[in-house]
Design brief:
This protein is mainly alpha-helical. It is built from 14 helices and no strands.
Length: about 400
């Protein structure tokens, strides 16, 4: 027994020493390791893109596979043929949607940006004149006004020079665009393989889990994966649908009221709305900055429209669609967005909420099991909550 005890202590000591040595090595070689992992991620980016596309199209393909079985003629077909037909339909719809967006939105957005760049000197002059009037009303000396205007002119000159020198880096931009296009093409091919063989990949993953871990641990991992898939898919589809609807509604209202840059602002609002909490604010600020150069009154109208539509979307539509599947309180949504954005930037802000929802659900399940083992029911906790909310009566003593 003593020999076994000492052997266990020695084993744990060796493991702790190895972990400490690895930690010191990682700290000393952090830059090299960061560059190494960056290169690895660059090589594996087509697989990551393919996984994202496949995961995005998985829901529509499953829906079509369930619906196509109801057709009597197709019901007797081979399952692989039915899946292939559904894949062709899903990818055709995906390419049609992307082509429609590019053909209708991209020319308008490019034209709007070109108009903004062409009118930038006029907008800067208008802004300078407005600021000069304000400074004169507050009796600011003319020397400071001249110095302020000179600084604005210098800023404008620097900005125009930057735009003119932008063409010098055209070759690097073309190379970057080519690389992105190749990664997207490879990602599309990889997504086809993933969707076609998803059952085989799932079966292989289960075999590896049950081969390496005990059955109870493997069952728990599969349950967590199923829960995470439900949360992620619901969050992604609801977020995409509500953002698209919000962008379309914003565009329609701005177009009816004759407010310029309606297409560009609608696209910006839809894209920014994908980011919880902070995204709608950023979209509103960008639209307001674009419109303040045209008309402060039109800017105010847009801000009112944006606030009303975002309140309806954020407080009525999205909670009803997500609450039963996500079940994450608003406070933890804020925590997820803040932590995700601080650690992983834009991608962290997009994926922080579903990741936090999975962690929240698993921790709630763990707490529930512990409470049941201790014989504490939810009704007893609710009674304690009501006691905490009751006001203290006069003359009542409390223990400190």
């Amino acid at each position: 027994m003593d020999r076994k005890k000492y052997r266990t202590i020695a084993t744990y000591t060796i493991l702790v020493g190895i972990v400490l040595i690895l930690a010191v090595f990682l700290c000393l070689r952090s830059e090299e390791l960061g560059q190494f992992f960056s290169n690895i991620m660059g090589v594996l980016s087509p697989f990551f893109i393919g996984f994202c596309i496949a995961y995005l199209l998985l829901g529509p393909q499953r829906f079509l596979e369930k619906q196509i079985v109801r057709i009597p003629v197709v019901r007797d077909w081979h399952p692989g043929l039915r899946r292939g037909l559904c894949m062709v339909a899903v990818y055709a719809a995906f390419f049609a949607l992307i082509s429609l967006l590019v053909m209708t939105i991209l020319p308008t957005v490019v034209q709007t940006i070109a108009t903004l760049i062409a009118n930038l000197p006029t907008y800067m002059q208008q802004l300078t004149d407005t600021m000069g009037d304000v400074l004169i009303r507050f009796n600011v000396p003319m020397e400071e006004i001249s110095q302020w205007f000179g600084s604005w002119e210098n800023i404008l000159t620097t900005l125009l020079n930057s735009l003119s020198s932008f063409t010098n880096s055209l070759l690097a931009i073309v190379q970057e665009v080519t690389t992105v296009a190749m990664n997207l093409f490879m990602g599309l091919l990889i997504s086809c393989y993933m969707l076609a063989g998803r059952n085989r990949f799932a079966l292989q993953s289960q075999k590896v889990l049950y081969a390496l871990f005990p059955q109870r641990a493997a069952d728990y991992v599969i349950d967590v994966a199923h829960r995470a898939h439900t949360v992620f898919s619901t969050y992604i589809y609801v977020r995409l649908a509500t953002s698209a609807v919000l962008g379309v509604i914003t565009f329609i209202l701005l177009h009816i009221l004759g407010i310029p840059y309606d297409v560009l602002i609608g696209v910006v609002v839809a894209f920014c709305n994908l980011i919880p909490i902070f995204g709608p604010i950023v979209g509103t600020v960008i639209g307001a900055v674009l419109l303040i150069t045209v008309s402060p009154w039109k800017m105010l109208i847009f801000v009112v429209i944006s606030i009303v539509t975002q309140q309806l979307e954020g407080n009525v539509v999205t909670p009803k669609l997500m609450d039963k599947s996500i079940g994450l309180p608003a406070f933890w949504v804020l925590v997820a967005v803040t932590l995700g954005g601080g650690l992983w930037g834009m991608m962290g802000m997009l994926l922080g909420v579903p990741i936090m929802a999975v962690i929240y659900a698993l921790f709630a399940q763990f707490v529930g099991k512990r409470l049941r083992k201790k014989g504490i029911s939810a009704s007893e906790l609710a009674q304690h909550e009501h006691v905490m909310e009751q006001p203290m009566q006069d003359g009542q003593e409390t223990d400190v």
